[in-house]
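Technical appendix A lists one of the benchmark inputs used to test multi-chain prediction within the project. The record comprises two sequence entries:
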Amino acid sequence: MGVKVKLRLVLTFCIGVALTPMQAFSQAAPIGDASAGSDVYRRECASCHQIGEGAVHRIGPHLNRIFDRGAGSHSDFRYSDALLRQGRDGLKWDLRRLDAYIENPRALVSGTRMSYRGLSDAQRRADLIAYMRVYSDQPQNIPEASPTAIMREVDLPEAVLAIEGDIEYGEFLSSECTTCHQRTGSDAGIPGIVGWPEEDFVVAMHAYKQKLRPHAVMQSVAARLDDEEIAALAAYFRAIARQ
Amino acid sequence: MKLNRRRFLGTATLATAALSAPAVLGQTRPRVVVIGGGSGGGTVARYIAKDSDGAVDVTLIEPSRRYYTCYFSNLYLGGFWEYDALGHDYGNIARTGVNVIHDWAVGVDRDAKTVALASGESVPYDRLVVAPGIDFVEGSVPGWNVSQQSLMPHAYKSGTQVQLLKHQIENMREGGLFVMVAPPNPYRCPPGPGERISMVAHMLSESNPTAKILIVDPKENYSKQALFEEGWERHYPGMVTRIGPDFGGANVEVRPESMEVVIDGEVEQADVCNVIPAQKAGKIAELAGLTADSGWAPVTPADMRSRMDENVFVLGDASAQGDMPKSGFSANSQAKVVANVIRHELTGSRLFPARYSNTCWSLIATDDGVKVGANYEPTDEKIASVSSFISQTGEDADLRRQTYEESIGWYNGIVADIFG
C-alpha cells in the first residue's frame, strides 16, 4: 500500500516511563494528519474540486463521499471515457486507489481528463487523503464504509509457528470467539470449536488469515491474530475441553 | 441484647468481613459498580466477577428483572422469533458472584464515588461502569414526545413497545399505510431501520399485500442500503418507498392524535407510524456529568475510560468512541476490554491490548440474511475502523440462508455469553 505511515511502537515497555498503562501497546495508525491535509487540499486540489458542506461540481466533480464511490459515478458530471470505463470495470475509490491516483493519475487511468501532475510526497498524500476521508461516510453510521486507520501489522518469523500457546492469553482472546462460538461446544448455527486438536486449530486459523478459507467474518477475525495469538487460542480451546 | 434488623445486619456484615478478610487487615475488596444490565453492562459485570474469582466486589444496577434484547426484536416483528425468546433474566449473572440490584440509578456523586438509587440507598465504588444505552432527544421529531409512544411507537428499546407495534401492524386496515420516521446519525443499530422495514414488509406481504410502506429519512444514505433495496425489490416489489433529504425527508412533523405525518408541508394519513427519534446517551450518563454537547459520553479509545473521570468507564451505545456502530455486539466487545483493564487496575492481573470488533446481521426475508462487520483498533484520537466487510448484492440463496443460520448461532452465542 502506498499510504505508509510509520507505526508508532511505543517504547515505554522497555524504558519504563510511567504512563497510563494502555499507552504501552502499539496502536492502529491514523491515515494521516487531516489538518495538515486541508492545507495540501487547498494548494493542490481546491482550484478544480470542491469538498465539504454545499460542495458542487466545478472543473472537476465535488469530492464529498468519494470513498467507496464507483469511479465516474456522478450522473450529473461529464467524465472522460477512460474513467467511465474504469468505473464499469469496477474501480471503486478506496485508500489504496485514491493514493495511486493522486500519486500519478495517468498511471491508474490512462486517458483521464484530470490534468494534474501528481503528488510524489507520500506523507503529504497521506495527510490529504486523511482530510478527504472526513467528508465521506463514517463507519459509526455505515459500518461497511472504508476504514479510517491502518491496521497494526505484526510480523513474526516462521519459527514462531512452533510456539507453545499461552493459555491465559488465549482465555482473554477467546472472549472474542465466544461471542459466537459457545463455550459449551454447541454447534447450532455456528460450529463448536472447543476441544479441537491444537494443530488443526492453528492450520485452520492461518487458512482464514491467508483467505484460503472463504468465510468473511473468520477472515476478518484471523487477519489480525498473529502466530502467537493463534497458538494461544488453540491452546486455550484445547485446554477447556480437558477440564 | 435485643437484635433489631439494623443491628443484626450490621453484625452480620462485620462477621462476614472478618471471615473473608484478606491478608491485609482492614482492607476490603475493591468495588466495581455497573449501571445498566444490557449487552455492555451485563458482560462487564459477569466477566469481572468470573475472572477475578471473588477478588472484586461487583454490583450490577438494573431496573428490569427481565431484559429483552433489541437485537432480534425485528425478527419477532416479522414472525421469525418468539417474544419470550428475546427475554433473559439475571439469575446466571448473579450466580457468577455479581450482586444484582433491581433499581434505578438516579445520580452519581463522583467526588464521594457513590451511586444514588431511587430507593434512597447509596452504593460506593472504586471503579464505575456506566452502560445505560440510549435515550431520545426531546423535540427531534416535531409533534412527538414519549407520552405519545402508544399512538406512534418507537419500538427502539425492545420489550412491550415492539409488541405494540406488531399488534398495530396486524390490525392495520387492508391496503393501509405504514410510515417509518427514520432517525438521524448517529443512532443505535445502523441496519436496524432497514431490517425493520424488511420484517414489516414480510408481515404485510402475507396478511395485507396491498398495504404500502413509506420511509421518511433525514439521511442521504444508510448501512446495507444496496442490499435492502435489492431485497425489497425482489421480495416485496412496489411496496416500499423512501423519501430522503432531497425530497424533504429531513423536514417532518407528526400529529399522533390524527395519525398524520407532514413531510415537507405535504400531509400523509398513516395507519401505523413508527417514530424513531434522534438519540443520545441514557440519562444517567448526563446526570453523572459524563456527556459532551453531542449528548454522548466521550471515552479514551484504548480502554473506554470516561474523558471526564478516570474512575469511570462508559460502554456501548452511550459512549462516543469513534467508528464503532452502536450495537449489542460492539458493547459486548468493549465490555471485555473494560473488564480486562479494571481487573488489572484492581487486582494486578495481566493487561492485554484492546481488541474491538463488530458484526451486524440483518434478515431481509425468509432465509435471506446479510451481514456487515469490521475490526477496530484504538488510535490516539478514536477507535478506528481498520477493515470491514459486507455481504454482496446478487449472492446465491444458499449463502444467504447460511448467513441467516449464522445470525441465529450468533444470537444464541451472545446471550449465552452474557446471561447463560
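Chain A is about 40% helix and 0% strand. Chain A touches chain B through 51 residues (CB under 8 Å). Comparable benchmark entries are summarised in Table A2.
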